Amino acid sequence: MNPSFCRMRKSLKIAIDSSPNNDKEKDRLSNLPEDIVCQILSHVDTSIACRTSALSKDWNRRSVWTMLPDLSFHYWFPLYSPDYYRGFNEFVNKALDSRKGKHIRRFHLHFSSEGRSFRPSDFQKWISGAIECAAEEINIELNRDPCFHQIELPLTVFSSATLTTLKLYGHISIFATNSPVWLPKLKILDLSTHPCQGCGMEAERLVNSFLSNCPVLQEFYLNGEWNMMSIVRAPYTLKKLNVHVDSFVNDSFEIDAPSLEFFCLQQSSPVRYVIMNLNNVVAARLSILFEFISDRSCLFDLFQGLSNVKYLMKKSQKIAIDSSPNNDKEEDRLSNLPEDILCQILSHVDTSIACRTSALSKDWNRRSVWTMLPDLSFHYWSPLYSLDYYTGFNKFVNKALDSRKGKHIRRFHLHFSSDRSFWPSDFQKWISGAIECAAEEINIELNKDSCFRHIELPLTVFSSATLTTLKLHGHISIFVTNSPVWLPKLKILDLSTHPCQGCGTEAERLVNSFLSNCPVLQEFYLNGEWNMMSIVRAPHTLKKLSVHVDSFVNDSFEIDAPSLEFFCLQQSSPVRYVIMNLNNVVAARLSILFEFISDRSCLFDLFQGLSNVKYLYLNIQYRELHRLPVINKNKSPNLETFIIQLAINM
Question: In 3D, which of 11, 2, 4, 6 has the Cα closest to residue 616?
Fold first, then answer.
């Protein structure tokens, strides 16, 4: 099976004409417009684009690869080879010569060789060639070369009239020259490298020369061995500043950026920050990675300068602060947290973990904070059935539910992943206990248990006045009872399971009983062995319907959902769909996974019922493509996005 993926917008017509006139296929590659061909080939390395010319005689004749506005060269060789390097050098020169007098949009050069990678004179020639072709973006990535320490960028880089993006990564030693910097169109500058060794304060002059002589600069990244920096004065146009310097030689670091909106800082040693103008910063990301600090005022100055931010992310190691003797006895901050915050934190973990977490605080242990949690989650896993282990688990669940009697439970989650997992009587007791505590959400995940086949849900589940979400996953056999269903607050129902074996059409009655007696139901998921279903009648409140049934016993499947907005269907065998009311569906996701079909009208009826959708995703595993229906823009006037994924057996 060879998967093929296609992504198209606005409309897509699938039709295969198998007449003999189409046996000789046209050279579609040669007929593509030149701008589309260049757009496609610009996404790969230029050497690959050159070899791709063999796909089309016309491409080869016209040397299409020489027309690409984006040039990308990646040199990788574990050991230095003169022949390999000579061929690479000739190819880069040829590509640049072919673009003389033409425009280069992007020039990317990446060296990842461990030995002697290139000659500095060649490097300067390549960069100068890109500048001569009015390159808009230059991206250089170099590894450390043991044969030389300083690589001087061509002077033309500092005075390019077209450069909008300059990115220098890796072990490039920028040589600080006295040449004036003037880059009138530069918007993004990334110096993820290090300056010339021994240039000292000249490095700071070089950085601030970039900042003051790039009148439209918007983003600046400083990353590497720029530890001699002491001040960054940004222009009014700068919106984003990223500083990643492990340590500074000076005791202070001054930042003046009046129009900055995003600030990112990563530092491994303390320094005093002098914040001049960061009042407009909206978001900041700080990584404080040093472990000891003698004077914490440096951090106070930093946070005080960022007092107007809306979004702040702080990543730090444990910082030991050398403070006065009065702080030797640290305050028990955990005990002083408000109770609602404690419960919110502990609700994100399993209840057994929340119970053991009480050891973190004497006050938590004294008050039994874990018994106050509104969310209860229990996960039972044991590779072999152990009576002692199960007895302890059973007692713990019962104790947790007893502690919540007369109180409210927001969520009750029960997950079993053991072979011999539980006794049905215990299961019913746990669910009934959650319902008695006015649980809003019940989520049950069970594996297949060989000791019994049918698990009957407590009758109280079908008449809960507080339940808003009911999710049943795994090998739960829902026993169909004659008890009336009335769930006035249920909004989400997920039956990712299968009904009781042998219940036949009673399963359909149960599903439609849920749908008709849940007056505010909004989402319904049907997944599993519900193959005896023949009709789904949804209430007017239902907005989302997902059906994942491998095969149906009946020949037809009727869907009536007048207010549905999202429809998801996955099916492995053909069936005729009777679409009553799906006129309001905005988005649909269909997975048609059967390979043969004798009557394609079943698919026509399905697509015809979804004629008003705006977004359609279609996943097809189908052998007979000529039987697929035609999706016509005229019959689907609202269609804006159509994504199709084909997995075809050749």
Answer: 11
| Pairing relationship of beta strands 641-648 and 544-548 according to DSSP bridges | unpaired
Distance CA 649, CA 623 (A): 5
pLDDT tens per residue, range 28-37: 667 778 788 8
Q: Using CA atoms, how far apart are residues 317 and 484, in angstroms rounded to an integer?
A: 58
Q: State the Cα–Cα distance between residues 606 and 551, nearest whole angstrom.
A: 16
Residues 598, 603, 605, CA angle at the centre, nearest 5°?
120
Distance CA 413, CA 391 (A): 19
Length, in residues, of the chain = 650
From 105, 159, 155, 110, select the one nearest 133 (Cα to Cα). Answer: 105
Two tokens, residue 99: 């673009």
Q: Which two tokens stand for residue 559?
A: 């869907």
Identity of the residue numbered 512: N
The pair of structure tokens assigned to 540 is 């007017």
CA angle 430, 435, 440 (to 5 degrees): 120
Nearest one of 427, 366, 432, 362 to 402, comparing CA atoms: 432
- Rounded (5°) CA angle 533-535-538: 120
Contact (CB, 8 A) for 280 and 260: yes
616 within 8 A of 610, measured Cβ to Cβ: yes
Residue 543 in tokens: 């907005």
pTM score: 0.51
> Bigger pLDDT: 199 or 259?
259
Distances (CA, A) of 163 to 44, 135, 138, 166, 577: 22, 6, 8, 7, 58
Rounded-to-integer distance, Cα 25 and Cα 548, Å: 39
